[in-house]
Structure formats: structure tokens, C-alpha cells
Amino acid sequence: MRPRRAEAALTWNGAAVTTDMIGSKGEVTYTDPADGESDTIDITINDRDAQWAGDWLPQKGDTLTAQILIYDWDAEGDDRSFDCGSFTLDDYNFSGWPRTGTISGVSVPADTSFKTTKRTKTWEKATLQAIGQEIASRAGITLVWDVEGGDVPIETVEQTEQNDCEFYTQLCGTYGLCLKLYAQKLVVYDREACKAKEPVDTIGREDIQTWNWHTKLEGTYTGGEYTYTDPTTEEEIKATVGGGDRILKESGKADNAADAQRKITALVNKANHGATTLSVTIQGRPGLVATQCVTVEGMGGAIDGKYYIDSAASHIGSGYTMELELSKVEGGSL
């Protein structure tokens, strides 16, 4: 039987990057975070002949696409590929001895103003999706609205000296939604809805190479209370969700009671997420991506259970491993 193997297929400015270019001890790390950050790629190279510090040195704005290819993985003939997306190369460093280097890239739109240009604007009589569509259009990318139910109405919101990425990420978070930039798409999704889905895979004790488990002893919030001033009557109003004896209390601006309930629900769910975490290193599984759920079993007691993937980092070099950052799915969200 042929041994399993894995490799990263890289294309730099439309041309293939060969194994000889990276060097015999090169490694590629692709990191797929669930929320608030862009996908990244880091390429460790053996630059013995100083070519990468010279003629091959990437230039600002150079682009890279990457795929993970596996051969004979679970059985002979089990060949698969996983598209990691496209990246703009943005950071390079070299060190020695021996002479090595790291070239890094980030998944960002071709229009870099999405993350660099600070804007000031008052959005009125808008919706969360419509704001996202305008921002995505300005960046030259597509908005993917992966949220069940209706849109979120917004009477007024200020964007004050913020770039579009920072502003929209924060605004989505205010309403319990997450933002991810992947393959020239701006994806908005509901993390709590993802956590409610069935696990896509099982990770057993025998699959885990290293692990670290942590839990907060004080427990999670069972409800929330949000105090705001009615913009019309100037009356102080409290919106509540959930119940019990661990109540998260917050105050701030809200358009109405429904708006306040959305905001306090988002705050409680955010505070509860990650109360129990597990970090594991396993053999690479290209089908696992951030936002999915997995079942962990065979670890014993409270460590076993259903987990949400907060981040998946793939390392391809002499082998193929994955580092998963997981949050336990405990009870129901509000």
C-alpha cells in the first residue's frame, strides 16, 4: 500500500511555486479563524542561495493562492484537495544560520482601503445587510449573508474614524453576528446557529497528539439586562432576556426594545462562548474548517462532548498536522 502524503500547491502571481523554490525543509501554515480576523498563510523557506532575499523577493501587492493536496490519505486512491483561497503577501523576514525566511500573506480585498482608510459617516434608516453590501461593493468583493431570519434594522449608527473592516466587524458583533473574509467574499454568519448544527466529525483520544483543556469555574450567564433611554420619550427602559441568578447587566444606546434585546442577547452569548476550551493537535483533516462542530470522545468526564471550531491551523511540511482551537457547546444559547 502506498504511504499517505500531503503537499501545499502554491501559485504566486499566477505561476507555480515549486518545491525547489521553497527548499527541502520548507513548511506552509494556513490558519483559518472563525471570526474577526482574516485567513493567513505563512511559508517557511530554506534560502541557502539567497535568492528569496534577492531576485525572488516578493513585492507589495503580490498575490498567492494555495491548495492543500492529499494522496492515499485514508485509503489507497483517496486523493483530495482543499482550496485555502487567495492572499496578498504583506510580511517577509529572513534569519540565520542556516539562512531561512518566512513569507506571510493575508486574505484581504484587492482594494486595501477596506482595512486602511478611516471613514466618518452617519448611517440612517439602514439595515445590517445593506450596510454590508455597500462596504463589500466599495472593496470590490461579494457579501455573503449566511443568516437565517430577517435582516437587522438600524435607525442610525455612526462610523467615526474607522476603516470599513473594523466598523462592520464591530457592528455585526453588536447584533451577535460574525464576520469572515475568505476568497474575496465577505461572509456574515450567526455563530450560535453554527453551534446548533450537528458535528461533522469525531476526534477520539487516539487521534490527539497534544492537548490542553481549560474551563472557567464561575460558570456562564443565564440571562441579561440592558438599560437604555428611549430616543423619543427619554424614558429609561430595561430589556431582559433569560433568567436565573447569573445576570449580565449592561447599558447603552438602543433604537427600541427589540434592538435592546438583540444587543443584550449578543452580549450574553459572547460572554458565554469559550467558557470551556480545548486545544488539540491532530493529523491533518482537510474537511475540518472553522465554524464547524466536532465531537470529542475518549478523553474522559467533562472533557468529552461537542465543540465548536474557533480556529483551524494546517501545517504542511514533512507531514500534515492541524492545530484546532475549540470551544465547548454547553446548553442552549439565548
Explain what you see.
This protein is of the alpha+beta class and 334 residues long. The chain folds into 4 domains: 5-106; 113-192, Phage tail protein beta-alpha-beta fold (3-Layer(bab) Sandwich), CATH 3.55.50; 194-216 and 291-328, no CATH class; 223-270, no CATH class. Helices cover 16% and strands 47% of the residues. It contains 6 helices and 21 strands. The protein has helices at 19-22, 113-116, 128-139, 164-174, 191-195, 257-272, and strands at 5-12, 15-17, 27-33, 40-46, 63-71, 80-95, 100-106, 119-127, 142-146, 153-162, 178-182, 185-189, 201-204, 208-215, 223-229, 236-242, 247-251, 276-283, 293-297, 305-316, 320-328. The strands form 4 sheets. Strands 1, 2, 3, 4, 5, 6, 7, 13, 14, 18, 19, 20 and 21 form a 13-stranded mixed sheet that branches. A 3-stranded mixed sheet has the order 9-12-11. Strands 16-15-17 form a 3-stranded mixed sheet, covered by helices on one side. The longest helix is centred in the C-terminal third of the chain and has 16 residues, at 257-272. It is globular and about 70 Å long. The mean pLDDT is 90.
The strand count comes to 21
Largest beta-sheet characterization? 13 strands, mixed
Number of helices: 6
Cα-to-Cα separation, first versus last residue = 51 Å
Spans where pLDDT lies below 50 across 5 or more residues: none
The total domain count is 4
Helix fraction bin:
10-25%
- SSE pattern, N- to C-terminal: EEHEEEEEHEHEEHEEHEEEEEHEEEE
